[in-house]
Batch of 2 targets.
Target 1
Amino acid sequence: MDQAVIEANRKALLKAQQGELDAVLMYTRLADVVPPDDAAVFRQLAAEEGHHASAFHHYTGEVLQPKKTKAVMIPLLYKTLERKTAYSLISGGEYSAGNKYKTLVLTFPDVQSVLDDEFRHGDMVKALL
Ligand SMILES: [Fe+2]
């Protein structure tokens, strides 16, 4: 990939990398508060989001730290809302992430597999209900 193309898209790539890292922490924390069968799925999703973060790190070369906001908010929502409502929000977030990658994939074709994963994640979380 041409370095100039990476530079032109650096902001979007860093945003994507940050979002993936935040998702790793969020799913890890969520796994700590849900029933064991759900926890296994969320741990798998955390691992896959980690692979996504690495894919973006490959372009940016920057080491980022996860932001804790969603990692605090989502388990709290799980505990205060109905499980169905919380999981619907999470699956919606995955579909929204997938849709956001539709622009990036035009320049970075390998982002397609990340995009596909986000839609699969949305379906997996929905399937828990
Ligand atoms: Fe992801």
Target 2
Amino acid sequence: MELIEAITGRKSIRAFKPDPVPKEKVEEILKVAINAPSAINLQPWDIYVVMGEERQRLSRRLIKSYREKKISCSPGNVKPLDEKLSARGAQSFRLMNPYLEEMNEEFNRFINEGSCNFYGAPVAIILCLDKAFSKARYVDIGILLGFIVLTAYGLGLGSCPIGLISAYEEDIKDVLDIPENKEVVIGIAMGYPDEKSPVNRFKSPREGIEAFVRWID
Ligand SMILES: Cc1cc2nc3c(=O)[nH]c(=O)nc-3n(C[C@H](O)[C@H](O)[C@H](O)COP(=O)(O)O)c2cc1C
């Protein structure tokens, strides 16, 4: 697949076929994706790939914890968002909701419990960073995330980044036996897209670059 086509064609997938993904396929994706750049080539990531019964066990724990603590998907801002950003958040809800209504799904439940369940994907990937690193190294994890979702798409798999799960870090570390000195940064749901699910018809729009770019020349 051509690179530009991959970048513009990828989108988050939120319904998956139950079909298992061969371990070799995930391995192939990760072997490509770890070509991502990182500062001083430190490759500071730890990558946990969770499949099969362990994947189900992880979701059961996350959903239970979500129902107890009710920490939801949110922008995670520490100061109020300006009008433009708030409007984008509202737009995300407005544009996706009709697809969920078609599925008789309530938005918050679908997104929050769905995220905890990796949207039923057979593969969950958890990206961790050693706590010895500074916050600047989150950038490296972010780039790896980008490379993983693009590579997965290029090789015929769908994916969705799952940031919500970092709110349930202690549960994840407990279930997966992740050492205390590692921080859970982000998860990824991965599998074969369920083409029949209405939510997978949704493609989020982007602003024109004039909304972000200031030319200084
Ligand atoms: C860091 C990060 C965290 C995200 N966390 C979640 C999440 O917890 N649940 C979810 O459904 N989508 C999550 N997403 C997916 C975004 O909602 C999605 O990327 C965005 O709406 C743009 O849509 P697209 O990926 O289809 O282009 C996350 C994306 C990123 C980059």
